[in-house]
Amino acid sequence: MDRPGEDDLRIRGNELFQNARYGEAIEHYSRALGRAEGRVGEASRILINRSAAYAKLGLWNESLADAERSVSLGGATLRACYRKGVALRELGLLAESLEALELGASLDPSNERVASAVGEGRALVRDRARRDSFRRARTEEVLEARRRFEVNAEERLAAESLRREAEERARSQRRAGYERHRLRTEEHQRAFREREAEEADRRRRRGEGDAGVRDDPYEVLGLPPEGCPPGQVRRQYLRLVSKCHPDKPGGSREAFEAVRHAYEELLGVGTTERG
User: Fold this and answer.
1) Contacts for 60 with CB less than 8 Å, ≥ 6 apart
2) Residue spans with biased composition (Basic and acidic residues) (predicted)?
3) Which of 9, 195, 212, 244 has its CA at a distance of 20 to 30 angstroms from the CA of residue 81?
């Protein structure tokens, strides 16, 4: 049996196309194209048919490739320009699509299908131009809003930085104040311990080891020897007993007892009483 020629394959491909069997139609067109080598007109016609079949399957890149190849082989025919314009439109290349369709319409102004495609293409180009214009304007608005936001953000960051610096200075000042207070407290405690040590040393030198002999109560409490009101004695006692309490840093049992005995001796009461 003789192999079918390109005409038979093309005709069979057309029949399959009419029956919406586009994949099989493409196969027959491809086989026919392989047997039409050297015949430009026939090859161009087969390419247009295959471009239409590709379009039915939504294969727009393949459809465009066949249409452009048909133009390169057989020139800008009405069908080739139409197929190229449709494929370009579907690929989003609206300006190029309109150019191809207008070329096709110039070849046959009476063709309503191409004229309709030209009108649709012009509407799409105008609509895209409007949308692009709106998009550009919107983009400029967004960029301006972003610029203002960034400026405001920088101002907020600067204000936040100043606030943090002020807080840090305040914390540093508080820490410095705490440190000065701690140093003064340690200095007072150290001076008190030194006085206590000096008193103990004087007692040892005077041979006052007897527990029954006590220092002058006014001297122990740091009061004037000529005497003072009971209220002042009580306030001085409370201040000293708080500092030299054994549970406090720098305090001692010996100093605590000395202060307590001096207070009892001056007021003639026990420290458990509260007047």
Assistant:
1) 54, 87, 90, 91
2) 171-217
3) 9
